[in-house]
Structure formats: structure tokens, C-alpha cells
């Protein structure tokens, strides 16, 4: 079917899932909406794995069906109604528009953005197999970033019709000495997709390779420290980009605390002076080079709401035995940041 035929379709007559009128309207916006953005430079090169000890992968992908499938256009909008952090994704992300078909499944990467710390990729799937209500990429085939020594993150896949799904992956690569590059080279080679509602698993041969330039942001040096009950927490920086707000931090815990509780992980409650809630007890990625005594990490969330003049960041330490046998929470004093006028 051509793009013109797609555009001439009566959306209300499509054979879709049983959805609400609001959801129908969202799908209709995706089919009819047009965008224009600066294309991204695609690189066809090997990329080393972001997982320590994993093998490097070389991927090649070529633009084909992706730019001709209206349901794939602006995938992020299927998620942005639920996640305020994706509000500006469409405007500042790069068009990837790559697709490959293998064993009855077409995988299509729509857009991606690199905010200097985190990478977000939107993609879509069209399949002739019945995966049911929910499906996932079979582990451990994650996104590989050249030069990274590790990574953390997650993804979600949402069903939008009997044969189509949209996905969103957000991950944070970690580089030696926290030296984040201006350009990241990414490879994604999923080997199989599995159903979460039946026993179906389909293997295939998909491989994508592309690069992203870092978004420019305004960096605020903070270096504010709060301390309580053997935990020393320093908020180092806040970076404001067009799509996100990123905080970096370092924490140190005492030997006495680690002897009793071998894990100490911060989560955050982040609000502003207007009452907007950005983070409600969520954490981000990080690394420790000395078994948890010190921990360097990042957490990101959406852009700051207009009119806010202060950002309130409260760290809460979750210290545990790692065995599920018990944990406690240590609330640290909130750190109040005056925002630029």
C-alpha cells in the first residue's frame, strides 16, 4: 500500500483492537501528522558492546519501508501522553528511519536522541505472528554503544493493533572516567522476540547501526552536600537540555553501614516550587568501583515546567541486605536549587 493510499484511508474503518475513542484519535493523529527534521548521519561500522565481557557486534541497516509506513511516523506520541518527559522528543530527536524484515517481523527504528548522558530510541514492529497482548525483545540483545564499559536502562513495547507494536528504549551508557563523547555510535542486533502471553518465540536476523550527536545543554555546577546516618550525598551538577534535565551525584557511605547493609542505593523525589512532581521515588544508573562505598550516578527526568523558580531534590537512601530479607530507608535533607531567571 502506498503512502497516498494510507493517507486516504478512513481511519475509523480500520480493523483495530477494541480501544477508546481517545485512543482512536491518537492513532489517527499519527497517520496524518507530518514532520520535518534534520536527517542524521548513518554510519555502517562495528560497535563494541556496552556490556562488560560481551562480544562486539557489527550491524548494517538500510532505509526502506520505514519512511513509507505512516503508523510508524512519530512513534513517541504513543508514549508522550503518559510520560511528560517525552514532550519535546519529537522536536529535538534525530530521524533514523531504518527498517529490516526477517522471519515475518519488520523492525523499524523511528527516532533517537542523545542528551549527553542518556539515549532514547523509539521503534516499531509489524509482524505476521500472533504475539498476543504483550511482547519483548529476548535478552541479552541490548543496544551496544561503542567505547562504553557498561550500561543500564529499560524498554517498553505497546501493542497498537493485532499486528503492530511500538517500542521505546531509554538507556545510560557508562564510559571510563565518565568521559561522555560528543558523538555516540550505536548498534542494535536483536536476535529474537518473545510473547509474554503465550510460548511464542521468533528468531530472526536484524541489525542496525547509527550515530547520534550530543544535544547542547546548560550546565549548572551545584556541589551541594547533605549528610545523615553514615551517608554523605553530593549533588554535583544539573544539566538542562531541550528534552531532559539530568542530575549527576556522588555518594559515600561508612564502613559501619556497609557491614550491616551491603547495598545503599539512592532514589529521588524531585518537585518544583509550583508543586509539579518530576520524579517520585525513582532512581537512575550509576557505578561503584569499591563495592558500594562510593557511588557515582545520574538521574534524568523531563524539562522544567514554565514559571518554576526552584527545584527541590530529595535523596532517599534504600539500604538493604540484597537478599530480600530486609531494608531501611534513610531520608536526607532536600536540596533546593534556585533556577535561572
UniProtKB/TrEMBL annotation:
Transmembrane segments: 44-66
Key words of the record: Membrane, Transmembrane, Transmembrane helix
Residue ranges annotated for the DUF5643 domain, each copy included: 221-335
The keyword Lyase is annotated on this UniProt entry: no
Keyword Transmembrane part of the UniProt annotation: yes
Name of the molecule in the record: DUF4179 domain-containing protein
Chain ranges of the DUF4179 domain: 41-126
Source organism per UniProt: Ureibacillus aquaedulcis
Amino acid at each position: 500500500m502506498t503512502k497516498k493510499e494510507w493517507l486516504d484511508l478512513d481511519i475509523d474503518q480500520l480493523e483495530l483492537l477494541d480501544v477508546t475513542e481517545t485512543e482512536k484519535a491518537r492513532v489517527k493523529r499519527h497517520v496524518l501528522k507530518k514532520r520535518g527534521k534534520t536527517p542524521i548521519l548513518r554510519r555502517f561500522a562495528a560497535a563494541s558492546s556496552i556490556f562488560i565481557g560481551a562480544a562486539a557486534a557489527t550491524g548494517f541497516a538500510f532505509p526502506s519501508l520505514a519512511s513509507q509506513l505512516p503508523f510508524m511516523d512519530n512513534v513517541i506520541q504513543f508514549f508522550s501522553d503518559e510520560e511528560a518527559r517525552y514532550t519535546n522528543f519529537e522536536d529535538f530527536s534525530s530521524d533514523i528511519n531504518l527498517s529490516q524484515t526477517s522471519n515475518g517481523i519488520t523492525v523499524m527504528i523511528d527516532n533517537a536522541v542523545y542528551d549527553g548522558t542518556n539515549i532514547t530510541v523509539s521503534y516499531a514492529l509489524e509482524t505476521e505472528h500472533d504475539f498476543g497482548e504483550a511482547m519483548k525483545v529476548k535478552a541479552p540483545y541490548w543496544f551496544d554503544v561503542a567505547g562504553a564499559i557498561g550500561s543500564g536502562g529499560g524498554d517498553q513495547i505497546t501493542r497498537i493493533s493485532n499486528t503492530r507494536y511500538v517500542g521505546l528504549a531509554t538507556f545510560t551508557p557508562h564510559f571510563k572516567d565518565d568521559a561522555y563523547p560528543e558523538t555516540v555510535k550505536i548498534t542494535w542486533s536483536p536476535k529474537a522476540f518473545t510473547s509474554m502471553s503465550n510460548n511464542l518465540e521468533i528468531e530472526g536476523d536484524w541489525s542496525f547501526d547509527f550515530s547520534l550527536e550530543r544535544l547542547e545543554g546548560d550546565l549548572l555546577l551545584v556541589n551541594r552536600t547533605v549528610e545523615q546516618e553514615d551517608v554523605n550525598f553530593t549533588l554535583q551538577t544539573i544539566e538542562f537540555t531541550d528534552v531532559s534535565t539530568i542530575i549527576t551525584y556522588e555518594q559515600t557511605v561508612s564502613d559501619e553501614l556497609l557491614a550491616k547493609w551491603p547495598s545503599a542505593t539512592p532514589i529521588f523525589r524531585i518537585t518544583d516550587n509550583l508543586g509539579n512532581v518530576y520524579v517520585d521515588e525513582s532512581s537512575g544508573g550509576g557505578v561503584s568501583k569499591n563495592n558500594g562505598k562510593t557511588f557515582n550516578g545520574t538521574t534524568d527526568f523531563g524539562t522544567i515546567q514554565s514559571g518554576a523558580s526552584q527545584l527541590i531534590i530529595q535523596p532517599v537512601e534504600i539500604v538493604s541486605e540484597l537478599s530480600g530479607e530486609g531494608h531501611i530507608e534513610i531520608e536526607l535533607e532536600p536540596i533546593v536549587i534556585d533556577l535561572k531567571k
